[in-house]
Amino acid sequence: MNTNTFEQQPLRGANAIVTGASRGIGRAIAIALAAAGANVIVNYNRSVQAAEETVEACRRYDVKSLAVRADLSDPDQAAHLIEATCVNFGSPQILVNNAGISRTGLLLDTTVDEWDEMMNANLRGPFLCAKAVLPHMVQKQYGRIINLSSIWGITGGSCEVAYSASKGGIISFTKALAKEVGPSGITVNCVAPGAVMTDMLAHLSAEDLERIAEETPVGRIGTPQDVAGLVRFLALPSSSFITGQVVSPNGGLVT
In this structure, what CATH number is given to the domain that contains residue 123? Predict the structure, then answer.
C-alpha cells in the first residue's frame, strides 16, 4: 500500500462490526469506516432491505461488506454475529455497539417488561457482543470497542428514566472494561451524542426541533455524520492512548 492510500484509508484491511447499522447513526458509522478502508459487517434485526442498502453504500469504497441479522439480546445470536465476521472476513479489530432503542414516558407508566426490553437492547447487547469479540482481540493484542451512549446517560432525561439508566450503564461499562482490557492493547471508548436528526426524533414537532436547535450553542441539531466522524477517529490505530473516555458530540448543549 502506498503512502497516499494509507492516508486516505487508514483502516484498510481492518474488519469492523457495526450493530444496528441499517439506518441512522449506525448506517453513517458503517459508511464512515468503509470510507476509511475497513471491511464492515452490517448488523440488523428487522430491516433487511435497509441493511442491504448500507452494505451497498459501504462497498462503493472498494471494501468487503455483509449484512448479518442478529437479535443481540440473545447470547447465541450475538456469538453468531462475531463468528460470521470471522468466517467471512477474519478476526474483527473494531466493534461499534450502536444498536439500541428509546422510549419516552413517566417512570410510573413504565412496565417491568418495558424496562427489561430497554436494558436488554441497550445494555445486555453490548455486553454480549463485547464478551464474544474479546477473545479474538486479546489473541491479537489489539482492538477498538466503541459504545454508543447518549447525552441522557450523562445528565439524565425527564420522562426517559429507563433510557437514561441504560445509557448511563453503558458509560460505566465502558470505563470499567477499558481498565480491564487495556493491557491487551484494546481501547474501549464511549460516544454520547446529543440531539441528532434520526428516527428517534421523529415524534417531535417542527417547533420542538427548532427550540432544541435554538438551545444548542452551535445553532443546529446534529447529523449522523457528526457522530460517525468521531467514531472513525476512535477506531484508528493512532487513537491508542485514548481509552475509557466519554466524548459527547452535542453542539455545546452540555459541557
Answer: 3.40.50.720
Host domain of residue 39:
9-247
The answer to whether position 206 is within a domain reads yes
For residue 243, is it within any domain? yes
pLDDT value of residue 8: 85
Per-residue pLDDT tens over the stretch 189-217 = 999 999 998 877 777 778 888 888 999 99
User: 167 with 102: CB under 8 angstroms?
Assistant: no
Q: Which among 44, 61, 142, 163 is annotated as catalytic?
A: 163
Give pairs for 211-216: CB < 8 Å, separation 24+.
215/253, 216/250, 216/251, 216/252, 216/253
Residue 44 a catalytic site member: no
End-to-end CA distance of the chain: 41
* CA atoms of 194 and 217, how far apart (whole Å): 12
Residue 212: inside a domain: yes
Number of domains forming the structure of the chain: 1
Q: Cα separation of 177 and 146, whole Å? A: 11
Q: How many CB atoms lie within 10 A of CB 35?
A: 18
Tens-place pLDDT, residues 45-68: 999 999 999 999 999 999 999 999
- Domain presence at residue 255: no
**How far is residue 145's CA from residue 208's CA, in Å, rounded to a whole number?**
34
